[in-house]
Design goal:
Length: 444
């Protein structure tokens, strides 16, 4: 949005004579937007691009052969993953372009929603976003537990050590990291470490799957299950496709980027969806090619190879899950730190005690739920249905109509409204499918 239009919007909001024309914006002024105590506008576009790429190249990428390709097959899986990449980039660009809507910078998703729609939307978006991030955090703890268990089983096959125990260890490790790293911008060197870890386990998974595929007999690529089950698994896989590339926290990540805010964020997004998305696609396709319909939701469970190689892949996946969780937990941390005035030295006794108790309590709850229902693929579907689809596709399209109403033609507005309606139906269908999948899989 140009400066002239921004000034017009601000003037329109402040003018009593125009209050009836912009009721949603007048109401929005009643929403209290606290100043953040975390860093704003300090990071380069490349660092932000690495943050985004780290999120999509997490150990979740080891599960897409099983959770996307198996229920969709070659045609549906490949087309779906490519379309998801393009559509996710499009939707992310929409929300990035309105970061400075109305002449001010909106550093939280809920702040932008509240400014546009009013307090009710502020609360709903806040709840949806935190549900989204909390479910993603649960998934990372499950991933960490799976990787750690796979690592230990390479050296000692002990049935007494259940997955729940490893999930508890992973959760404790996440607590220690959350105490040590106060903010999203503080990750810095950890982003390089995370990128190295990602390259290690993705490269190993690719190499082992490629070797297994070359040496294996013909695989079965048929879509498993009865017709009715295929319907639900297909809808669930569609929700997983949304989950692959989207964070549900673009405004929060964009808040850390230097000016010019929109231009730099677009560079970061283009990096994420080009070079940053290659590992996800490659490992997913090669994994499915190697193991067919028997592909696991954790690809390293399928792979055969030298013990030390698989051990390295599993331990790096475990460690990277801890770092990646911190990215998706950062909005919750920012809210709590700002609310309770946690500022100053990160090693001050009060600040350390607060992070230990509050972040520890948050992650303890996530760990308990992870151990209770460690069904990773189903949690991807549930997360996509409840919050990823609304936050990633529905809201950005509608917000863009409001923000760019003076620039959009009737045809363009119609296009964005079609997206809103289509993805609303998709979210509802995915929610039903996710609950059914969880109910069925919980019996096992």
């Amino acid at each position: 949005m140009g400066e002239d239009e921004q000034r017009e919007d601000v003037a329109l909001i402040s003018s009593p004579s125009n209050s009836q024309k912009v009721d949603h914006q007048v109401v929005a002024l009643d929403v209290e937007v606290p100043e953040t105590l975390h860093e704003v506008g300090t990071d380069s576009w490349f660092q932000v691009g690495v943050v985004l790429s780290t999120g999509i190249n997490s150990a979740y990428a080891l599960g897409y052969a099983g959770t996307i390709m198996v229920p969709l097959g070659w045609t549906g899986g490949v087309i779906g993953l490519v379309l998801s990449t393009l559509i996710s980039l499009y939707a992310s660009v929409l929300i990035a372009k309105i970061h400075e809507y109305g002449g001010k910078r909106h550093i939280r998703y809920r702040d932008l929603a509240g400014f546009m729609y009013g307090r009710a939307a502020y609360v709903i978006v806040w709840a949806s976003q935190y549900a989204n991030l909390f479910l993603i955090n649960i998934g990372f703890i499950i991933l960490g537990g799976q990787a750690l268990k796979a690592f230990c089983l390479l050296f000692k096959d002990d049935d007494r050590m259940k997955l729940a125990y490893f999930i508890a260890i992973a959760g404790f490790a996440c607590v220690l990291f959350a105490i040590a790293v106060p903010t999203l911008s503080s990750l810095r060197i950890w982003l390089a470490v995370s990128s190295i870890f990602s390259l290690v386990y993705l490269t190993i998974a690719f190499a082992l799957a490629l070797r297994d595929g070359v040496n294996a007999p013909p695989r079965d690529y048929s879509i498993p299950g009865s017709k009715i089950n295929r319907v639900f698994t297909t809808v669930g896989a569609a929700a997983n496709l949304v989950f692959v590339f989207n964070t549900g926290m673009i405004p929060e990540i964009q808040a850390t980027i230097r000016a010019p805010v929109v231009d730099n964020m677009l560079k970061a997004l283009y990096f994420q969806f080009s070079l940053g998305s290659v590992p996800v696609h490659v490992v997913t396709y090669v994994g499915y090619w190697a193991y067919g319909s028997s592909s696991s939701s954790y690809l390293l469970n399928n792979a055969s190879g030298p013990v030390w190689v698989k051990a390295l892949a599993n331990i790096t996946a475990f460690l990277q899950a801890i770092i990646a969780l911190h990215i998706f937990a950062s909005p919750a941390y920012e809210f709590l730190d700002t609310k309770y005035g946690i500022k100053g030295s990160a090693v001050a006794v009060r600040n350390l005690a607060f992070r230990t108790l509050v972040r520890g309590g948050y992650l303890a709850l996530a760990t308990f739920l992870s151990a209770l229902l460690p069904i990773l693929g189903d949690f991807m579907s549930l997360t996509g249905a409840i919050s990823s689809i609304p936050l990633t596709f529905i809201l950005p399209n509608h917000m863009y109509i409001i923000a760019m109403k003076k620039k959009l033609s009737s045809l363009q507005k119609c296009w964005h409204m079609i997206n809103v309606v289509f993805f609303s139906f998709m979210a509802a269908a995915a929610l039903v499918a996710a609950f059914r999948l969880i109910a069925v899989d919980s019996k096992n």
